[in-house]
Amino acid sequence: MNTLAIVGSQWGDEGKGKMIDYFGKKADMVVRAQGGSNAGHSVVIDGKRYSLHLVPSGILNPEAMNIVGNGVVFDPRVFFAEIRQLSEDGIATDKIYVSDRAHVVFPYHYLLDELYEAGRGKEDIGTTKKGIGPCYMDKVQRSGLRTCDMLDRKKFAQKLSDQIDAKNEILEKLFNAPPLDKEATLTEYLGYAEMLAPYIHDTGVLVYEAICAGKKVLFEGAQGSLLDIDL
Q1: Which of 21, 28, 41, 109 is catalytic?
Q2: pLDDT, tens digit (0-9, with 9 covering 90-100), for 128-138
Q3: Is 103 a catalytic residue?
Q4: Do both 94 and 111 map to the same domain?
Q5: Does residue 44 carry a pLDDT above 70?
Q6: How far apart are the first and last CA of the chain?
Q7: What is the count of structural domains for the chain?
Q8: Is 13 a catalytic residue?
């Protein structure tokens, strides 16, 4: 089986990006398996530095298919900012697929991440405050929104509206913080939904078919093993 998984054995910053870049040059498919935009893989090619947070590092291999898997918490703002930058740098971005089961990071996740961290005081955990933890919390309690929800504009708008109402209640009553602007958030993320539609696929099928066909599949770990909440 031509599969390889690269993970960090510490808390991060072990040089995974360099190893992923090295093996990614020979891969047919690179799969970002977990984590979110808190990850950062830096690669230097011909003196040009590329910092990737959500887009798989295989994007720099023009022959590789790139997968953002269902274990990733997906931030549309970060994703499209990276796509724009890569396009401006002349990097093709037509071989990226995003799992239809990936949970989506919204602005209220950012706000809650910062407020939860501030509430810990000296016991803070050093979060990047990019909404990763709160998004995974929603995933575990089955209240989060996934990329597949964004494919039906009307239903997505209603689900997101309900989530904003619920999160605003937490912001106001628990933290005495100002509420999120619902209309502005709906407008922004309905726009992302339209932009994202061509990228969304059942990526589990794509990975399965690649493995069955004997393709070289590289699984890209995002965080260090010692950050695992079960350790």
Answers
A1: 41
A2: 788 999 999 99
A3: no
A4: no
A5: no
A6: 29
A7: 2
A8: yes
